[in-house]
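can u do me a favor
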């Protein structure tokens, strides 16, 4: 896209008009001022300067031109903001862009048609009765089911394909491109991707359809204990398409973004049902990670609307209690937060502490006051990690202290704020029984060795992970950890010591 087209769009639009749709602006000299729509504030620090076609918030630091404002407001990327503003300005884009625009619009129409079909099956047919009963048993109301347009995919290889072809004239190729069907390897044609599943429509921050999440009805995964249990995993998301990219998507971001701005914090849960129950109970700043570990793309999306992130993850499938769950996962999450370019500090990242053995949707449904208290006061992530590792490694023993310090250091090394780092060193000293001066020296050595490890890795000094997994005793653990870059080191260290963590 040429710079000239963007300039033409900006010349035809008044940035004050665009911003003024969301912000009440008042004259302040040659500029306009108002309350920032991207973070909660009582004193205006948001400024629009029409002569420069720019905006800036001196509270949260965000700023840019009309394109970046629409991107930030609607949670979209630059090409999409360009398309929307071009249409508003009456500027014709290139033929290629117009074709892609039309294609994306058509795919959204196909997805919306699927939403209607799945919803009708769930709420208006005998086929959907077991799924509807299951949702009611889980505590979901008819109002929630209607508001969020939940649906049910019949346990049939071609129910959606036949219906949309007959009633909407939607072609098989369009269903395939939208991630709703797959090409059959046994012959001609396609088959429905989602079968025997409760369907959760997934939308982007502006409310446009991008894909679906599907869940089997009941418990079990491929056990025969649930409808659709032989269709694969318990949870199934749309495949990657031109509209859907799981690593950059959050369930209910379209409903949550306003509350995230208001509270200054997003609460991240794993499952769609967790997020849905939170919204049903009025906790609107909750979003779902679609069952995947947090990614840099998701962090970037969250921080468009809130500077703080708190995790409220389920007890894992092995039944570990909250006292031991999360250290491995959150160490990896710290890496993703770092990769995202998150502007805040690790003190802006926390963990919602729930009663042992209870998942978010249980607490939200049965004890909303406990959820409110916990989500309003998350534990800083470094404190959480230190506590979790201390629960795994007995600091009363020399070996336990060594393991505790070694486990925490790779993550602590990422803390660059001196005051923050000093506070965590004090906490680690109290938890481990190791003097602060010793920890500080260990941290300095960790900082120095990190550079050497990176250089070694770039020079090809790597270990064979396949060999490690097949013959874990064949490789010296300390040598293996030294050969890896920091993020891999965290995960490998835990892998090598996994038997000691049970």
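np, heres the sequence
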């Amino acid at each position: 896209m040429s710079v000239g087209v963007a300039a033409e769009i900006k010349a035809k639009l008044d940035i004050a008009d665009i911003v003024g749709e969301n912000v009440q602006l008042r004259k302040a000299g040659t500029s306009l001022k108002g309350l920032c729509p991207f973070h909660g504030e009582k004193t205006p620090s948001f400024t629009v300067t029409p002569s420069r076609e720019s905006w800036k918030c001196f509270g949260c630091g965000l700023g840019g031109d009309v394109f970046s404002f629409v991107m930030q407001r609607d949670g979209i990327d630059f090409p999409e903001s360009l398309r929307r503003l071009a249409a508003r300005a009456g500027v014709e884009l290139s033929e290629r862009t117009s074709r892609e625009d039309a294609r994306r619009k058509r795919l959204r129409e196909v997805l919306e048609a699927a939403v209607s079909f799945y919803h009708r099956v769930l709420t208006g047919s005998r086929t959907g009765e077991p799924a509807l009963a299951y949702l009611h048993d889980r505590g979901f109301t008819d109002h929630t089911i209607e508001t969020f347009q939940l649906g049910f995919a019949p346990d049939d290889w071609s129910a959606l394909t036949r219906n949309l072809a007959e009633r909407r004239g939607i072609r098989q190729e369009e269903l395939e491109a939208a991630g709703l069907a797959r090409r059959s390897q046994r012959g001609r044609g396609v088959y429905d991707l989602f079968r025997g599943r409760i369907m959760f429509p997934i939308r982007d921050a502006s409310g446009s359809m991008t894909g679906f999440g599907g869940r089997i009805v009941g418990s079990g995964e491929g056990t025969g204990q649930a409808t659709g249990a032989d269709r694969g995993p318990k949870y199934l998301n749309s495949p990657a398409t031109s509209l859907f990219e799981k690593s950059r998507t959050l369930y209910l971001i379209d409903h949550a973004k306003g509350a995230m701005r208001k509270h200054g914090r997003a609460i991240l849960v794993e499952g769609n049902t967790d997020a849905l129950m939170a919204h049903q109970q009025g906790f609107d700043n909750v979003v779902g990670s679609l069952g995947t570990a947090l990614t840099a793309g998701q962090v970037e999306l969250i921080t468009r609307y809130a500077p703080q992130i708190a995790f409220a993850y389920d007890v894992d499938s092995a039944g570990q209690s909250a006292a031991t769950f999360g250290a491995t996962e959150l160490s990896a999450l710290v890496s993703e937060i770092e990769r995202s370019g998150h502007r805040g500090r690790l003190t802006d990242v926390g963990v919602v502490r729930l009663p042992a053995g209870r998942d978010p949707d249980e607490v939200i449904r049965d004890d909303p006051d406990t959820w409110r208290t916990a989500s309003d006061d998350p534990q800083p992530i470094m404190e959480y990690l230190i506590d979790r590792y201390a629960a795994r490694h007995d600091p009363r023993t020399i070996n336990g202290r060594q393991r505790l310090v070694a486990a925490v250091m790779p993550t602590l090394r990422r803390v660059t704020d001196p005051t923050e780092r000093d506070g965590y060193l004090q906490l680690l000293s109290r938890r481990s029984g190791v003097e602060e001066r010793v920890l500080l020296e260990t941290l300095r050595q960790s900082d120095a060795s990190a550079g050497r490890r990176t250089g070694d890795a770039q020079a090809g000094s790597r270990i064979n992970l396949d060999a490690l997994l097949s013959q874990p005793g064949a490789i010296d653990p300390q040598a293996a950890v030294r050969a890896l870059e920091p993020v891999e080191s965290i995960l490998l260290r835990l892998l090598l010591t996994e038997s000691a963590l049970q």
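Residues 221-226, 316-326, 457-502 have pLDDT under 50 and may be disordered. hope that helps!!
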